[in-house]
Here is the input.
Amino acid sequence: MDRIPVAVLGATGVVGQWFVRLLSRHPWFEIMALAASERSAGVPYGEAVHWIFPEEIPEAVRGLPVVLPRPGIPGRIVFSALPAEVAGPVEEEFARAGYIVSSNARSHRHDPDVPLLVAEVNPDHLALVERQRRNRGWKGFIVTGGNCSTVQLVLALEPLRRRFGVKAVVVATMQALSGAGFTGVPGNAILDNVLPHIPGEEEKLAREPRKIWGRLTPEGIEEAEARISAHCHRVATRDGHLEAVSVKLSRRAELGEVVEAMEGFRGLPQELGLPSAPERAIVVRPEPDRPQPRLDREAGGGMSVVVGRIRPCPVLDWRLEVLGHNTVRGAAGGAILNAELVVAKGLL
Ligand SMILES: NC(=O)c1ccc[n+]([C@@H]2O[C@H](COP(=O)([O-])OP(=O)(O)OC[C@H]3O[C@@H](n4cnc5c(N)ncnc54)[C@H](OP(=O)(O)O)[C@@H]3O)[C@@H](O)[C@H]2O)c1
Here is the structure.
């Protein structure tokens, strides 16, 4: 089949570069335009970008002149890796003009008619896009992915939520530097250090799962009641967020049942065989010292979450460690998977 033309907004940033890397070898999508700020516009991509990967910039995009993110650029699907401060109105302009926007920015995550989508967890929420088009009179629509810490948390807990219900979660994150973007955290602040505050992160992690776990009703999403308490830390790893999680379930579970639910988990992307779907969305490691960011972040090409140290919790019910590749599963890879689901569902 002819590949579907796509564009990347924010293509010179950390997430944007992951989009370029993953899309340049994608079987369904073909990059036709790369957009960034005034700083980069008009310059060939290869000169505008501070390329972060060891391999060369893909030949097909190296000479592509960077454009400003305005409708009119070629592409039917637009992947947005813009900062939230600019993403809101720009993504709306694209959706109004008929593009399908798959976004990583937080700007529209809580709009009642915009799906906050984690493809294995709440694919049914895609039904919101018809309401979005109707409400706003748009030809296109916006689909958003969750914050990087949210995505791996809800994915790891999904088998438990389905089988036993989730009542409460306490989570402490150890988040990698790439999560802060290209200019990110100054070296002097993070070397030999842990930063115990990431602005806005705890609020996102406490709020987003409630929408993702929400029930789709004719009136929209009825948010889940689960209570979530988050502690977020920036640490000096490059990629891969580690989360220490305690969870209270609605029904009693035995250790064997918890492990079995995790190991046997499959979502719709796996059933449909979508190109970016990892064979196993959740990989369970039995060793007492796993998962570790450096050893486990590439699991499933960065699209699997890795769970380990599943053990009883004396305060809630269960404790576990969860690792996810923040810029792949938690950002670009997750948004590409969401777009594949859009295509597979015939919404293009
Ligand atoms: N990093 C992660 O792990 C992660 C995970 C989930 C979600 N996100 C979200 O994804 C988005 C991108 O994050 P990032 O980490 O990739 O940030 P980043 O490295 O700072 O990149 C920002 C990108 O946006 C462009 N840009 C900045 N201001 C612009 C403007 N006024 N008009 C057009 N383009 C503009 C930049 O272009 P120039 O190079 O030309 O300045 C660059 O391409 C953010 O909304 C972030 O919250 C990030």
